[in-house]
Amino acid sequence: MARRVFYSFHFNADAWRTGQVRNIGTVEANKPVTDNEWETIKKGGDAAIRQWIDGQFYGKSCAIVLIGAATAGRKWIKYEIEKAWNDGKGLLGIYVHNLKDHAGNKTTKGRNPFEDFTLNNGKTKLSSVVETYDPPYTASTSVYAYIAVNLAAWVEAAIAIRDNH
Questions:
Q1: Fewer CB atoms inside 10 Å of the end CB: C or N, the chain?
Q2: Would you list the DSSP string of 103-119?
């Protein structure tokens, strides 16, 4: 049975790239929210967004942060990372800058979002515990294939890492 995961990503910049990863199908992901649903959620303010995110985490064993050029430092990405870790979920990052978007464009590699967090009273960076994967290819089709072959194993590794911390 495929693991159930939550995808964290910068919607405006990386929704197309995220769709490609979702379509791999080796893990079961949270249902994508439509533009209209998201606008309705946002109208409810921060409390409604937090409630929606919390509900999406229910029953998930891992959170996958899809790292694009502008992912790190975003308010809700940070919330999702913190929630995943505090809830004992597996956590990993995948760089998606070399996947093409709807217009056929790639982007620049973003900063590691796990650098913004520390464990053990500030002594250990979360980035030294959580694995990030940067597919070693520049061709979008090769990047996709690399993620497809490895995604399920990366999720299992992330869950094992979290179980040990």
A1: N
A2: TS---PPPP-GGGG-EE
Helix axes 35-43, 45-57, angle to 10 degrees: 130
Q: What is the pTM of this model?
A: 0.94
Q: What is the CB neighbour count within 10 angstroms for residue 112?
A: 19
- Residue 61 in 3-state DSSP? coil
Contact of 98 with 135, CB cutoff 8 Å: yes
d(CA 88, CA 112): 20
Residue range 76-91, pLDDT digits in tens: 999 999 999 999 999 9
Of the candidates 81, 90, 62, 116, which has an alpha carbon nearest to the alpha carbon of residue 9? 81
Three-state SS at 72:
coil
CA distance 20 to 14: 10
Q: Is 4-163 assigned to CATH 2.40.300?
A: no
**DSSP code string of 20-32:** HHHTT-SSEEPPP
Q: State the residue for tokens 């590699």.
A: 109
